[in-house]
Protein: Fe2OG dioxygenase domain-containing protein
Amino acid sequence: MEETNKSVVNDYFTSAMELTESGDPHVPTRYILPPSQRPMLGPSIGTSTINLPVIDLSFLHDPLLRLCVIHEIELACKGFGFFQVINHGISSAVVKDAQDSATRFFDLPADEKMHLVSDNFQEPVRYGTSINHSTDRVHYWRDFIKHYSHPLSNWINLWPSNPPCYKEKVGKYAEATHVLHKQLIEAISESLGLEKNYLQEEIEEGSQVMAVNCYPACPEPEIALGMPPHSDYGSLTILLQSSEGLQIKDCNNNWVCVPYIEGALIVQLGDQVEVMSNGIYKSVVHRVTVNKDYKRLSFASLHSLPMHKKISPATQLVNENKPAAYGEFSFNDFLDYISRNDITQKRFIDTLRKKNL
Ligand SMILES: O=C(O)CCC(=O)C(=O)O
Ligand SMILES: [Fe+2]
Structure:
């Protein structure tokens, strides 16, 4: 095998893009999931009966209708920890430019991307090709680039310079999602009966990591996944998907496909909101399936409080009848945990839940 190939087809950094291009009709053994973890693709998934919430955010700015939107958000957060938003204020041109730039990045020859590979979570820019950092030995059919995205001026120079438009176009999308995140956190705080600016300072100083994920066509989608079940550790994730593939777990523990809605963005509650709400809202467990025919792209904008900031249940939501249900935690605690544990089978948040409650 040639040197270049060796670097991309080794145990740690197998690029899913490279595997797809190789034309092999089978996925390598390490991608094959144990039978109990395989996705059930096809009509048996039974998603048609569930209506997942879609919320029109334009009314958030209308003083007369804001409360109605906040009530819709409350219901969605209680029912699913998840909703889609339309009329969210991010233009379709900004979205399309970011998607085109990311597509061009992933289409680059492997050598152009491999110098960004790292398995250090704290690296501000990290190209990765599968989960390789825990005790979990199964690999996933995904290539990604993750970059710190807030404050943008601190980080953008480290982002990929090829394609040349990447920094500007993905940067614009990252800034727009930062603004949207602030609006959503305000609405979610209000929906819990807290002040609109309950987390204002934390959000201003908080972190944003943009994970741009590429799931190429997979020869055996029934036995592999693009991403294993997990919840996101932060406050909220704003997700843009180019086609279906995301699934969430509903309150009956069934996997439900999230429909693709043109122009919509997906909002997922993370562990920090679950803790802040004292469990009134739950972070959503999700996974990604892959398909035989085409490549799927997603932008997961992962927003979080500052690295060192400990989050605990809001005092207004703790009382005699509802004592604090979680211990406090910071982003640093989360990083420490995932460097030592298998996060794919167990949620980090479960470790914070007080056992006697
Ligand atoms: O690609 C997706 O739809 C989900 C990505 C995701 O869950 C993540 O990056 O945390
Ligand atoms: Fe996620």
Remarks:
- The chain has ten helices and twelve strands.
- The pocket of fe (ii) ion (ligand 2) is lined by residues 230, 232, 237, 286, 300 (CB under 6 Å).
- The CA atoms of residues 53 and 83 lie 5 Å apart.
- The two ends are 56 Å apart (CA to CA).
